[in-house]
Specification:
By secondary structure, this protein is α+β, with helices and mostly antiparallel strands. It has five helices and five strands; from the N terminus they run H-E-E-H-H-H-H-E-E-E. The chain has two domains: about 100 residues, Topoisomerase I, Chain A, domain 4 (Orthogonal Bundle); about 50 residues, no CATH class.
Length: about 150
């Protein structure tokens, strides 16, 4: 399964999207290559298109306990995909908003007033019913960043 994932990853690297764009004062038409993001759906489709596994979700969900030998490798694949999406989103390679949603992250900006306006960014994981590697459902918690420090030089 890991080798199939590495093959899928290489396939994504070797087949970027070609996006039409116009550049320069004359609007010359060009095609720019955009990286193809790794995704679990993309991996499933790759396996099906190559006629390797028709429904790989059985492996990832450990359906009826028949795929216990694949729990660790499927977990590793999911982590690699999540890492690619999050790091690609943070670097601006992929759409940040979409990668946040795919990975259950949301961002809220709250404004509080106490003689000073303070902005606090709250990042929380959206509670989703996604099976973990052992088939249980995770309890996702809220994380919040501290407000920015106040300027005490006055």
């Amino acid at each position: 399964m890991w080798q199939y994932f590495l093959d899928y990853k290489k396939d994504c690297e070797n087949s970027p999207f070609k996006v039409q764009d116009f550049v320069g004062k004359d609007g010359e038409m060009v095609y720019r290559e955009k990286n193809r993001c790794l995704s679990i759906i993309g991996f499933y489709s790759y396996l099906d298109d190559k006629e390797i596994i028709t429904d790989p979700s059985d492996y990832f969900e450990n359906k009826e306990g028949r795929y216990e030998d694949f729990i660790l490798i499927c977990s590793r694949i999911k982590r690699q995909i999540k890492r690619d999406q999050i790091e690609g989103g943070m670097a601006g390679v992929y759409n940040t908003s979409i990668t946040q949603r795919l990975n259950g992250l949301t961002e809220k900006v709250e404004t509080q007033s106490n003689n000073n306006n303070l902005n606090r960014i709250v990042i929380e994981e959206v509670q989703r019913q996604l099976p973990t590697d052992t088939g249980s459902h995770p309890q996702l918690s809220q994380r919040s960043a501290l407000p920015p420090p106040t300027d005490t030089t006055h």
